[in-house]
Design a protein that fits this description.
248 residues; alpha/beta; 7-stranded mixed β-sheet; 7 strands; binds S-adenosylmethionine
Length: 248
C-alpha cells in the first residue's frame, strides 16, 4: 500500500515544501497552507502524487484539481489488481487511469471529451510510461465509442454531477451531469455499461455526499438489475461515496 515514510496516506506540508519551495509563500503565520489558493493546491497535490504514489502529473491550468488520496481510496474500494477496466472521463491528469495501471496492474482503457484535457491526459500517461489506451469521445459515453466485443471487469468514473455550474474552477463538461440532481451522466454509464461488463463485473462511481443524487442513481441502478454497495469515506473535511453496482 503506498504511503509516506510515516506510514500514512498523506504528506506533511513541510515535506511538500522541500519538493516545491514555492509553497512556502502560501503558508500563514501558523504554518498552514492556504488551500484556497489554486497554485498552492496544485503544487501540494503534485507533491503528494509524486512522493506517495510515484506518479508525475501536470495539471491543466483551468481544470479540476484532482486529489490523489481520494482517488486512490476510491480505486481501492473495488479493484483487487489485474482487472480489465474502463474509465469514463479521465480528465487532464488521467490520474485514476494511471493509478489503475501502475498501482493495480490493470489493463486500462480511458476516455476523455475535452480536446485540451485529452492532450494533457496523453502527456501524463506518456510521462508515467504506463500502457493506458486513451480514447477521444465526441459526446459518446460508452456506446459508439467502445467496441461491443470489449468486456470489462470494472467500469469506473468520477462523473460530472452538478445540476448546473454555480462557481468557477470547472468547465461545463467537468461539472454538469445533467438531469434534476446532476444524475444523468452517472445513469448513462449504468445503462450503457451493463452490456460491456463481464459476468460479476461492476460499475463504480465516485460521487459527493449528496443524498438526492445518490438516491436517484441507486434507484435506476437497481431497476436495471444491478445490486449495489455504497461505501462512504472521508478525505480531509470532505465525505465521498464509492457507489459500486454489481452485475450478477
Ligand atoms: C468530474 S471530471 C473527473 C476527472 C477525473 N477523472 C478525476 O477523477 O478528477 C469529469 C471528466 O469527464 C469528462 N467528460 C465529460 N463528458 C464526457 C464524455 N461524454 N466522455 C468522456 N469524458 C467526458 C470531462 O471533460 C471531465 O474531464
Amino acid at each position: 500500500m503506498p504511503s509516506w515514510r510515516d506510514g500514512k496516506l498523506g504528506l506533511p506540508v513541510r515535506e511538500a515544501i522541500k519538493i516545491f519551495p514555492e509553497l512556502e509563500k502560501y503558508l500563514d503565520e501558523r504554518g498552514r497552507l492556504d488551500l484556497s489558493n489554486r497554485r498552492a493546491r496544485i503544487l501540494y497535490n503534485k507533491a503528494i502524487t509524486r512522493v506517495v504514489f510515484d506518479i508525475e502529473v501536470e495539471y491543466h491550468p483551468k481544470g479540476l484539481i484532482t486529489t490523489p488520496i481520494s482517488r486512490f481510496i476510491f480505486l481501492k474500494t473495488f479493484l483487487r489488481g489485474g482487472e480489465k477496466v474502463l474509465e469514463i472521463g479521465t480528465g487532464h491528469t488521467a490520474m485514476m487511469a494511471i493509478m489503475a495501471a501502475k498501482l493495480f496492474k490493470c489493463d486500462v482503457i480511458a476516455t476523455e471529451i475535452e480536446d485540451e484535457f485529452f492532450e494533457y491526459a496523453r502527456a501524463n500517461i506518456e510521462r508515467n510510461n504506463v500502457g493506458v489506451k486513451l480514447i477521444k469521445s465526441m459526446g459518446e459515453v460508452i456506446e459508439g465509442l467502445i467496441l461491443m466485443e470489449e468486456k470489462f471487469d470494472a467500469i469506473f468514473s468520477a462523473p460530472p454531477y452538478y445540476e448546473k455550474l454555480t462557481k468557477g474552477g470547472l468547465t461545463e463538461r467537468e461539472g454538469v451531469g445533467g438531469g434534476r440532481y446532476g444524475e444523468a451522466f452517472s445513469i448513462r454509464i449504468l445503462e450503457e455499461g451493463w452490456q460491456y461488463l463481464k459476468k460479476n463485473g461492476k460499475v463504480a462511481l465516485f460521487l459527493p455526499d449528496k443524498p438526492s443524487l445518490l438516491e436517484v442513481v441507486i434507484k435506476r441502478g437497481v431497476e436495471l438489475g444491478y445490486t449495489y454497495c455504497d461505501i462512504k469515506f472521508k478525505v480531509g473535511t470532505r465525505c465521498r461515496h464509492s457507489l459500486i453496482f454489481f452485475k450478477r
